[in-house]
Write a structure and sequence with these properties.
The complex is a heterodimer of chains A (130) and B (148). Chain A is α/β, with parallel strands linked by helices and 130 residues long. Chain A has helices spanning 2-7, 19-31, 42-51, 69-78, 96-104, 117-128; strands at residues 11-15, 35-39, 57-61, 87-91, 109-112. Chain A is built from 6 helices and 5 strands, in the order αβαβαβαβαβα. Mean pLDDT of chain A is 91; it is low at 1-5. Chain B has 148 residues and is an all-alpha fold. In chain B, helix 3 packs antiparallel against helix 6 and helix 4 packs antiparallel against helix 5. The chains are: A alpha/beta (130), B mainly alpha (148). Chains A and B meet through helix 2 of A and helix 2, helix 3 and helix 4 of B. Chain B: The modification Phosphohistidine is found at residue 76.
Chain lengths: 130, 148
């Protein structure tokens, strides 16, 4: 039933190497009633997704030391198990070519940091389609 | 009573003097019953991260040959956290550092970084006082809204 779908708790995986930013994005998402798992690297994100692909959205920082959010996005979209999961990229830099590159690769949205509550409330309708 | 007045005054002056910007209000807005110490926790994370990054920058500034790419990368991370907590004055100094880095101007970077460190120290002192006042004012003041 439609009502049950909207009340289902949606699980978001948040990826950011900055502990400050991770704390903020996790709080923003929890305020919007998402269940949030936080990891500080794309490697950990992929490990977790390998164990439990029951994730309704991935929200990731763009610029991380070992692997960028773009590279993580590519890995997700290349995987038959994971490719349906919406991916949102965050960056402190507003670089149009970077944004286009991510959107072209299948990112569902691109947010400029610091992320605002209004950015997060838009996510549900724009990204989740549930 | 006195504590809450001191608190209000201190907060206004932190904003008026440009130490903090709108983003700090956003953090306060996120503090609620589920996370009653959210702001203080995030600020503590910030100081932990920033001390580490600043130490790495110090080391990188001493290194030969100069690695401006690394300096820029480290400062990018620092500036990110600085923006996230709304530390305006420090953010502006970080921006200047990045400009010197782009120009591969090592003396500029070194001068600029001294300013970054000064702003960091000043901010730390002010926020420590702020949180102390907040604690003394008691639980009623915890969920302070930006208008106070």
């Amino acid at each position: 039933m439609a009502i049950a779908a909207t009340e289902q708790e949606l699980h978001v995986l948040a990826v950011d190497d900055s502990s400050v930013d991770l704390a903020v994005i996790a709080k923003l998402l929890r305020r919007s009633k998402y269940r949030v798992t936080t990891v500080n690297s794309p490697r950990r994100a992929l490990d977790l997704l390998g164990l439990d692909p029951n994730v309704h959205m991935i929200i990731t920082d763009y610029w991380m030391p070992e692997m960028t959010g773009y590279e993580l996005l590519k890995r997700v979209k290349e995987s038959s198990e994971l490719k349906e999961i919406p991916v949102v990229i965050m960056s402190s830099e507003n670089v149009p070519s970077r944004i286009n590159m991510c959107l072209k690769e299948g990112a569902n949205d691109f947010l400029i940091k610091p992320v605002q509550p209004s950015d997060v409330s838009k996510l549900r309708s724009r990204v989740m389609r549930r | 009573m006195e504590h809450s007045r001191q608190l209000g005054y201190m907060k206004r002056s932190l904003f008026d003097q440009g130490y903090l910007d709108e983003q700090f209000y956003q953090l306060e807005e996120l503090q609620d019953e589920a996370s009653p110490n959210f702001v203080e926790e995030v600020v503590a994370l910030f100081f932990k991260d920033s001390l580490r990054l600043m130490s790495n920058i110090d080391q990188a500034l001493e290194k030969h040959p100069r690695d401006f790419h690394r300096l820029d990368s480290l400062m990018h991370q620092l500036k990110g956290s600085v923006s996230s907590i709304g530390a305006l004055r420090m953010k502006n100094e970080c921006t200047l550092f990045k400009e010197h880095c782009d120009e591969q101007n090592i003396e500029g970077c070194q001068r600029s970084f001294q300013k970054v460190k000064r702003e960091h120290a000043a901010l730390r002192q002010k926020l420590e006082t702020y949180f102390q006042l907040l604690r003394q004012a008691g639980p009623a003041e915890k969920a302070t809204r930006s208008g106070v």
